[in-house]
Amino acid sequence: MSLDKINSVINTLESHIENHNLSKPKVSKSDIAWHIDHSLKVVNNVIIALQNSDPDTFKNNFSFLGKVFFTLGFFPRGKAKAPKHVKPPEIILKEDLNKQVQQVKTNIESINSLNKNAYFKHPLFGHINKKRVPHFLVLHTNHHLKIINDILKK
After folding, report:
1. Is 7 helix (H, G, I), strand (E, B) or coil?
2. Domain tally for the chain?
3. Would you say 152 and 144 are in contact if contact means Cβ atoms under 8 Å apart?
4. How many helices (H) and strands (E) does the chain have?
5. Domain limits at 98?
6. Pair 135, 1: CB distance under 8 Å
7. Which of 3, 29, 98, 136 is most buried, most CB within 10 Å of its CB?
8. Which residues does residue 119 pair with via DSSP β-bridges, in sequence order?
9. Which of 118, 119, 42, 117 is nearest to 75 (CA)?
């Protein structure tokens, strides 16, 4: 999966910032701002982890569960809890979302220059290397975009 696809889902996320304060409790406990902020934090944190990883310590231990979700092309709703470091703050400002989008766009550009065994450690899927990262980021972001779209449905 290409970086163009990541940029595309980020642009879609960015287009929803104008609706950041909308919510629909029957769909999600969280408002649109939460889903955008969380998605952006995940992208930024994953790329920073890739940049800081030691490729020599990469283990090809991608889990069966990871292979299943990557093959299915989606994550089920309501099954996972966001780790603390990618949880949005109580109050999410529009300016902060815009700032994070700019950070994400800059960080995405750095992926191509990383070692092929740059990786991040996912709590359920194991080590996810540079090759699998674009697919993971698109799947994760699309998961939250689907929720955002359901919140926006009349």
Report:
1. helix
2. 1
3. no
4. 5, 2
5. 3-152
6. yes
7. 136
8. 129
9. 42
Task: Render pLDDT for 39-81 as a digit per residue (tens, 0 to 9).
Answer: 999 999 999 999 999 999 999 999 998 999 989 888 888 777 7
Give dist(CA 67, CA 6) in Å, integer: 20
Please report where in the chains the tokens 């080590």 appear, as a residue.
Answer: 127
Structure tokens at 90: 């109580």
Question: Model's pTM, two decimal places?
Answer: 0.94
Closest CA to 124 of 142, 105, 139, 145: 139
CATH number of 72's domain: 1.20.120
pLDDT tens digits along 117-152: 999 999 889 999 999 999 999 999 999 999 999 999
Q: Which two tokens stand for residue 88?
A: 């949005």
**Alpha carbon of 47 to those of 27, 60, 86: distances in Å?**
29, 18, 13
